Amino acid sequence: MPRGERRGRTAPAPEAEANGRDYSVYKDKPVTATMAHATEWLSEKTGYQLDERSVAIAVTLYHDFQASPENRQAKADRKAAREAGSDGSEEVATPRQTRGRKPATDAPKATTTRGRKPRATAGASTGASTSTGRRRGKATTAPF
Question: pTM here?
Answer without folding.
Answer: 0.46
